[in-house]
Specification:
Blueprint (H helix, E strand, L loop, with lengths): L2 H12 L13 H7 L3 H35 L3 H10 L5 H4 L7 E2 L5 E5 L4 H6 L6 H11 L9 E5 L13 H18 L3 E5 L1 H7 L6 H4 L3 E4 L7 E6 L2 H6 L4 H18 L1
Parallel strand pairs: 2-3, 2-4, 4-6
Antiparallel strand pairs: 1-3, 5-6
Helix pairs in contact: 3-8
The protein binds uracil.
């Protein structure tokens, strides 16, 4: 492949294009322009209005569907099946796998990240790519290991195309599953990694810079609240290693609270 083609592919990737949907490009604009007659224009408008209305109606009804499904789940395995079978979130369409969880479901610490990346999507497991490797090392530094005393999941179980951030609508659609996930796993402590996990689990507390390193109580659907602490996302720490110092403080706070509880 020549240099110009590689540069073009790289440019596509940076612009978020990471799926090939067909061999031949289709200029839908030209096809549309050929339809000069007014009645077909009207028909098109009407069809697209109905389509938009249907999408809005389904978006508005999906949170209930997810929460109704989640409420019926009494085990982590039934919740995994419900999430895997859920078709109310368009992110699922492009994902190779549903990424539900990894680690020890009975662990005292539940780690919640943002959404799967490329490697997580390929393997169907959370935090198995470069940021996951850093997260494993961070946890190990305070005696936590995913296959011994740690359980991991994400706010969103499907990889957003091009690794973009999940939108607030996408988060609100799947949030009932995460809430049920926390209830069923019943950890002693929640570790929220990154701003999106922090704002999804602790609504009203915006901004990772403000919330990190502080203790909050998470109580949705619980009789006894769970202490929750947020820290920087490992992907951010890979880009900004100087912030590892603050993340280390957050981990020490987690270790000391855990020692008090256990
Ligand atoms: N980033 C996340 O937030 N979660 C993963 O599982 C991987 C990367």
């Amino acid at each position: 492949m020549d240099i110009a083609s590689i540069a073009l592919l790289r440019w596509y990737l940076e612009a978020g294009v990471d799926e090939v949907v067909g061999e031949t490009p289709v200029n839908n604009y030209l096809t549309f322009k050929k339809k000069k007659n007014i009645s077909s224009l009207k028909e098109n408008c009407n069809r697209s209005f109905q389509h938009t209305k249907k999408s809005i109606d389904s978006i508005l009804s999906i949170p209930n569907t997810a929460s109704a499904l989640a409420a019926q789940c009494t085990t982590l395995e039934s919740l995994r099946a419900a999430v895997t079978g859920f078709d109310g979130c368009t992110l699922r369409t492009n994902a190779a796998n549903t990424v539900f969880a990894d680690g020890t479901p009975t662990a005292p610490v539940m780690v919640i990240g943002e959404a799967p990346g490329v490697e997580e999507d390929r393997q169907g497991l959370p935090f198995v790519g470069p940021s996951g490797h850093l997260l494993d090392k961070m946890l190990e530094s305070i005696g936590l290991e995913r296959h011994r005393n740690c359980y991991m999941t994400n706010v969103v179980p499907w990889r957003p195309p091009g690794n973009r951030k999940p939108t607030p609508v996408e988060v609100s659609i799947v949030l009932p599953f995460l809430e049920r996930h926390i209830t069923l796993a019943a950890p002693k402590i929640l570790l929220l990694v990154g701003g999106l996990a922090a704002s999804a689990v602790l609504p009203g507390h915006e901004g990772i810079m403000k919330v990190r390193g502080k203790w909050f109580e998470y109580s949705v659907g619980l009789t006894r609240p769970i202490p929750a602490i947020a820290t920087f996302h490992p992907a951010y720490l890979l880009r900004s290693p100087a912030q590892k110092r603050l993340a280390w403080h957050d981990l020490l706070a987690l270790e000391s609270r855990l020692n008090q509880i256990l």
